[in-house]
Amino acid sequence: MIKGVITGDIVDSTLISNEWKPTIKESLERVVSDFIPMTKVSYEMYRGDSFQVIVDDITFALSVGIAIRAVLRANTPNGMEPWDARIAIGIGDISFVSESIITNDGEAFRFSGREFDMLGKRRLAVVTPNDNINQELKLTTSFADELITKWSIKQADIIYSRIISNASQKELAATLGMSTQNFSKLWNSGNGHLIQSYIERYKELMTKL
User: Fold this and answer.
1) What is the pLDDT along the chain (209 residues), one digit of tens a residue?
2) Strand ranges (DSSP E) for 33-84?
3) 131-149 helix and 192-207 helix, angle to the nearest 10 degrees
4) Please, which residues bridge with residue 89 across strands?
5) Is the pTM of this model over 0.90?
6) Per residue in 170-193, is it b (16+ CB within 10 Å) or e — as a string?
7) By the 8 A CB rule, do 195 and 148 touch?
């Protein structure tokens, strides 16, 4: 069965004191919990700052990846450089499943692992079994990555809320305790509409697989 595998690690984790490590773990757990109504998501952390995630429905794999980066930035303590993660998403078959995610194997794991090793300064990448899709995603992902890397803590917070919900801006603003005007301002300044279009295009491409 085709699934999405995310390989990632926390950017500049050595600069984050141990007292904040539980908050990072809780951030990842929040993403898993918030996506339960849409698809099964499971994750495992290892080496303290690295993680792998399996997303059952591949149409949501990119959303989960972006949500991880958004929630990390949104949960950054005041006065600290926004937290972030480097993420490589592999789409493909999973041929071997064990109790530990990091010992699983298959096409999706190999795509994700190899691309993660080649990320360099990039913080987001997507690889599928289809070369034409990969070429399109390589270009659009590079633009999206630039936008995400520049999000402020507040921009990341409101964009995360939109990624995990189909509620209106007015409803989401009320949930976050802000005015619709402020929500809209942060959404626009964070180029939320472009990220949303990127995610929708990804979903269209995934239906071809």
Assistant:
1) 899 999 999 999 999 999 999 999 999 999 999 999 999 999 999 887 899 999 999 999 999 999 999 999 999 998 899 999 999 999 998 875 555 565 566 889 999 999 999 999 999 999 999 999 999 999 999 999 999 999 999 999 999 999 999 899 999 999 999 999 999 999 999 999 999 999 999 999 999 87
2) 41-46, 50-55
3) 160
4) 6, 126
5) yes
6) eebbeeeebeeeebbebbeebbbe
7) yes
CA contacts within 13 A on the Cβ side of 144 = 28
Question: Which of 81, 199, 62 lies closest to 150, judged by CA?
Answer: 81
Please tell me the distance from the alpha carbon of residue 152 to that of residue 89, in angstroms, as a whole number: 23
Token readout for 163 is 């990624």
**Integer angstrom CA distances of residue 197 from 42, 105, 163, 191, 204:** 26, 32, 11, 10, 11
- Name, in order, each residue with C-beta under 8 angstroms of 61's C-beta and a sequence gap of 6 or more: 3, 4, 5, 6, 55, 89, 91, 126, 206
In single-letter form, the type of residue at position 159 comes to: I
